[in-house]
Automatic annotation (TrEMBL):
This is Speckle targeted PIP5K1A-regulated poly(A) polymerase. It comes from Nothobranchius furzeri (Turquoise killifish). The keyword Iron-sulfur does not apply. InterPro entries: MTPAP-like_central, NT_sf, Nucleotide-bd_a/b_plait_sf, PAP_assoc, RBD_domain_sf, RRM_dom. It comes from the Eukaryota.
Amino acid sequence: PETDPFVYVDQHVKGRKHQTLTTVRDTRKNQEEHSVFVSGIKPEISQTDISEYFQQFGAVTDVIMDKGKGVFAIVQFSETESIQAALSCVEHRMKGLKLRVKPREKKEFKLIPKKKNNPQNLQQVLDRLRPDLCQLGSVRALKLVNIQILWLNDKKNQRFSVFNITWVTDSQILPFGSSVNTFGVHSCDLDLFLDLENTKVFQARAKSSTEQAGEGVSDDAHSEDSILSDIDLSTASPAEVLDLVATILKRCVPSVHKVHVVSTARLPVVKFHHHELNLQGDITLNNRLGVRNTRFLQLCSGVEERLRPLVYTIRYWAKQKQLAGNPSGSGPLLNNYALTLLVFFYLQNCDPPVLPTVDQLRDMSCEEEECVIEGWNCTFPSQPIAVPPCKNTQDLCNITKPPCFLSSGSLLAGFFSFYAQFDFAGSVISLREGRALPITKFLSQNKQDETMQEEQPTKSHLPGPKLGPLNLLDPFELSHNVAGNLNERSHRSFLKECQEADKYCRSLQYQHKSTKGKSWGLVRLLTPHMEVQQTKPEQLAISIPFKATSLPEKLQDELQVAGDGFRLLWFQKVCCAVEVVLKTVLKCLLHAPADAVFREDPAAAEGTETASASFNSLNDSTESADSQGEVTVGAKRPLSSGSDCSVSPQGKKPRLAKRGHHEVPPWTCAQKHMVWAGRRRVRRELMKDAECKPEGSCVDLESQVSAYIVEKEPGLKQPLEFKVQPQMVGGTENTKALLKMEPSSDGAGVFQDFFHFLEVFLPKMVETVLEKGGGGS
Ligand code: UTP
């Protein structure tokens, strides 16, 4: 019988049956009343020595010793009077040792039997375990949790180490992520997946046999050999299980500290730090997909030897530029997994491809390799040998070669150039298909996603991925955007750094040693603050970015129907909205050429040539997007054929053009009044007591403000005349509408003021007009 928590835990580990509350409580009380706590013992003292010594105070029924350390014992008498006798003895000396004898602490020890669906269950388990675990010496603690650490140091390359923990439970703990995926560096995080499936099965079986045996305690019913099975896994939430795991780590595992649960993460996690190994560790539950995608990374690095150095370089670059790595595990920066997938996707899109698509890998696998996890098809070959070598021979930017061999045609430089021109706003990156899918396919979250439907017939009505500034689908869990945590700012930094690196890789500075002793080549590329010339912002252009998720639902639907031609349709709507703003809201006089014919922007077309042929561009359109008969998207043609189409500013006369960017003949505009000056004051006046609306949020109000200025304020001595030339960018770049502005007559010198006002006002107002359905539909 277990009077002591120590003994209780000991027996618990041996798989002892749980007793009913009354029995345990009675036994415990009885034991406490009959025993004393003895300390000051040395390991050489045996159980028999103690028993013999304490016989002088009364009959001894049991001696329980702390065998691991041998520093204390519980001595149990058959009569309670013996306790008093032992305690009243002034000094206890035995074999030259001075023993301390104390009464047992009276502790409320509640063992509450498991109840079905009892939400308190975990708390009770924790409450029960806490005092017990606190009293355990570390050696004994290892009886509960056996920690086995294997440092596998690769002598040739000290960078890669494997750290493995084994828990003595029904469960198993599997490493995943960088410690095993071949992309780890020394001291990388240790990601662990605690697989409780066996424990669950065991529990379910035990439960059903208890039920069959009725209320009584069946022999098998609560047979337990791990702390984790103290929780009913069928009802406990992941956070509850992780709480228990955290407690075990804190109390039982030597050298582990800073243990805390992050339950707000997509996959709740217990974080800890291993002091001795100086390692940061994460334990998650239900992460079979993580283990599988780790296998996928392993496979790819086995297939393509340039992959690892490239991933390392990009990771290092991203770290230097503060683009990746969220210190606390969550944050707005890219995580290493997302960054690695970006490299994979780029390699799938090289010409010829360096890596096959995930779909192709699935086709290369055999029947036994078929793997479906949580409904997602995760099939790929288990051995790299199953994947035919690629035909791409591009240089990696091999660091063993003298830097003068670095060429802009290297895979490294290609990565930057690929993403510098990538249409993040209009695309969802799919490693499965190895191409960028139009974002409009994913706009309606609740509609069934066609791709997933084809792939995952069982996964109907799945929520779509969380869309953001960078959309990168997990190769297997297709409803997960692995870059969904990025905010606009971190995405902008990523894009900017790619553009700068792209430019730098094309420069002589990258390829030739500096004669002035300046840093050059890779060194400069990988220094934290690269002094790369800032690209001058386009001074007189107003940019209206494509923000798929903030568009009104009706427009999202229309864009969805437009398929790959969604950019043009959106551009047309924006042009119409701009017209409304200039004409109706700002009271400009607008004049457009009678027959607006689309023409190609030579500067922009240049950029198109560097685009990868695998991008989805307008040219791949297969569908006719006919919104009110205004836009007809070109028939299916390969990018190389360079077919395209555009719309007029008024969105009335679509024409087929030749290349990726679209520029239409300008509007000629005139403004006789300073409609930009003093708007806030006029707005307040017009609103009077009504609730003040923010600038640009109401078409009627803003039109009234302009009308008021036109009517009440003195006009310009000389009217301002200017041109506005709308241009659509996208397909090979972030989708946006650019409005290039140029003054043609500015006698009053007010163009700059007007332009600065428009820079802020126009995008907001266009958004409002689009919301109101004023985008020409
Ligand atoms: P990390 O982003 O931590 O990558 O994801 P890493 O390679 O391990 O890098 P460090 O050194 O720890 O920072 C770890 C693992 O978590 C899974 C993947 O298996 C990845 O390898 N993971 C991560 C996902 O499955 N999905 C995600 O969105 C993120």
